[in-house]
Design goal:
- The chain has helices spanning 18-34, 64-75, 96-106, 117-126, 141-153, 171-183, 199-207, 218-222, 242-248, 255-260, 281-284, 291-309, and strands spanning 53-58, 79-84, 109-113, 131-133, 162-166, 186-190, 212-215, 227-230, 266-269.
- The chain is α/β, with parallel strands linked by helices and 315 residues long.
- The strands form two sheets. The protein has a five-stranded parallel β-sheet with strand order 7-6-5-8-9. A four-stranded parallel β-sheet has the order 2-1-3-4, sandwiched between helices.
- Phosphoric acid mono(formamide)ester binds at residues 62-65, 135, 143, 270-271.
Length: 315
């Protein structure tokens, strides 16, 4: 990008758009290859975010998001600091607006993991630095960027790809649907009645030209799919409900469902997994599972998100 860099919030994939997502994936592939053999915390040769500080703000638990953003910033030459709601004034009721204004004076970018999506919109409205969505109840865009990178690395092109989702119509599925409309792949969604995704995300995907099939028949969704994906049946902040677990049982990804997909289909899961619930051990540990590539790719994908947010990656 030429001229003065301008910052951009990354609250959802649509903030970037299809061309920027393609650029982010290409940049992630190049940077990942370019640093092969380096220690994980060593900076990339150009260290493009040298001196920059990213605040990681958590109102929910995290392992991957926390570690991958920290390592991503180290590799880009910058650093992070971490605020948990339990040990910061956010947990005592200081407003998001004031937190955004204070952090904007002290750091160069903010990543927020929170419950209500309205909170991250509030953060973005009041911050003078880029705000990045590290998961809300509504969406998880950084995860899906890593997922797209992973399927491409495993030899699949996005346009026309058949992605099949099983179980709960949750935040991760919402970002898959948003990506489908932007990157022109198709999504078959198999959920029990009452657990379908937000219809706004289905409409968004369809408006972008994706074919979205909603079904209660897991086999129908799996047949001929290129990618099989699932997630926990109970997301963070949701009550553990026996009725929900019982409704989800027919949607477990197991060898029977995998056998209906294409022979070279890959299995994705954002993690943490509940093996024996949403996925059987045979599939989770099996040869088609790429879940640990997917986890590692959080680092590489988020480096691109950071560069894009700082205005250092076009378009
Ligand atoms: N997939 C993911 O976001 O993992 P964490 O909850 O551990 O960050
Ligand atoms: N749907 C899950 C994703 C965890 C990374 C949750 O929100 O808890």
């Amino acid at each position: 990008m030429t001229g003065a860099a301008r910052f951009r919030h990354f609250l959802d994939l649509g903030d970037a758009g299809g061309d920027a997502i393609a650029a982010m994936i290409n940049d992630a592939i190049d940077r990942k290859a370019g640093r092969a053999g380096l220690p994980k915390g060593a900076p990339d040769a150009d260290a493009p975010l040298s001196g920059k500080v990213l605040a990681l703000v958590f109102e929910k638990n995290s392992t991957r998001t926390r570690v991958s953003f920290d390592i991503a910033m180290r590799q880009l030459g910058g650093s992070v600091l971490i605020l948990d709601s339990g040990s910061s004034q956010l947990g005592r009721g200081e407003t998001i607006a004031d937190t955004a204004r204070v952090l904007s004076r002290m750091v160069d970018a903010i990543m927020l993991r929170t419950d209500d999506h309205a909170k991250i919109e509030d953060m973005a409205r009041h911050a003078c630095v880029p705000v990045i969505n590290g998961l809300t109840d509504r969406s998880h865009p950084c995860q899906i960027l890593a997922d797209l990178l992973t399927v491409i690395e495993h030899g699949k092109a996005l346009p026309g790809l058949e992605v099949a989702w099983f179980g709960d119509g949750n935040n991760v599925l919402h970002s898959i649907l948003e990506a489908a409309g932007l990157m022109k792949f198709n999504v078959r969604v198999a959920t029990p009645v009452g657990y379908e995704p937000d219809s706004a995300f289905v409409a968004l995907a369809r408006a972008g030209g994706a074919r979205v099939t909603l079904t209660q028949d897991a086999a129908e969704a799996a047949r001929g799919a290129d990618v099989i994906v699932t997630d926990t049946w109970i997301s963070m902040g949701q009550a553990h409900a026996e009725a929900k677990l019982a409704a989800m049982a027919p949607y477990q990804v197991n060898p029977y469902l995998m056998a209906l997909a294409k022979p070279d289909a890959v299995f994705l899961h954002c993690l943490p997994a509940h093996v024996g619930e949403e996925v059987s051990e045979e599939v989770f540990e099996g040869p088609q599972s790429v879940v640990f590539d997917e986890a590692e790719n959080r680092i590489h994908a988020q480096k691109s998100v950071l560069l894009w947010s700082f205005g250092l990656l076009a378009p």
